[in-house]
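Format notes (please read before filing issues)

Several people have asked whether sequences and structure tokens are stored in separate files. They are not. Every record keeps both together, in the order shown below: the sequence lines, then the token lines. Line labels are part of the format and must not be stripped during preprocessing.
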Amino acid sequence: MMELLGNHSASVLVIGCFHGDEPQGKCLIDRYLERHIKTTKILFIPCLNKYGYNHNKRTNENGVDLNRNFPTKNWEKSVKDEFYGGEFPASEAGTKYVIEVVEKIKPKLILTLHAPFKVVNYDGDAQKISEKISGIIGYPVKPSIGYPTPGSFGTWAGVERNIPTITLELDENVSVESLEKPVFKIFELLENY
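Then the structure lines:
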């Protein structure tokens, strides 16, 4: 199904491209792995939503926002727009896949790469590491993204499973090349987490 790159006994999980119209994560992970083949502590899922990536769409092939499809206490059936959470929680293959990976490797920390808000958002006990990431990339740390996110991965992993979970919202108005240096430093920080 999805490509898993890195050490399968890793303690950190990094996921790119939940939303297909936010390709920065996939690009950065691919470039990092081209130059840093050996990773010991990080398991990468470069592109969770290949359909969305290939079609420049937020949602997957079923019109579902994967970041609203997790079986959280606050999941709710919503209108079929770009934030549609699916017919039921964990209805999508991508969602089930991430749940399976998390249950299998039991990461100590999860980082997901999104765009465009230029913030380090976190769920669970991730404030200290978020502040370190903020120091590298220069984005503010925010415990809330500022709007409701029912069925989100952060709620599922960070709040309900107590796995420190960081959503790094990258600047979409700059080149991926200009994001390489800070994001690679963040990956290197996570190698030592």
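For reference, the curators noted about this record: Helices lie at 24-35, 50-55, 93-105, 127-137, 153-159, 176-191. Residues 10 and 77 are 34 Å apart (CA to CA).
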